[in-house]
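Attaching the record inline, Q. Sequence:
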Amino acid sequence: MKIKNVIYVVTAHRNTRSQHSYVVGLYENFEDAEKSAEIEEYNRGGKYAMLIKSFFLNKIPEEIINNEL
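Structure, as predicted:
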């Protein structure tokens, strides 16, 4: 099911102490994002864990949170 204005961002995160990560791709549906993550994880020999997050296009956060208080 496609939800309007949702984008799925796939990122790769190194499985070591290194904090190296990079964007793999942006997709309009979860199935394509999942397939991309699977392929990238395989191509990188399991050295990177994949993360898929969804975001709403052109949606401003409802509230600004001040974490310094």
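The first helix runs from residue 30 to 43. Strands lie at 6-14, 21-27, 48-56.

More tomorrow.
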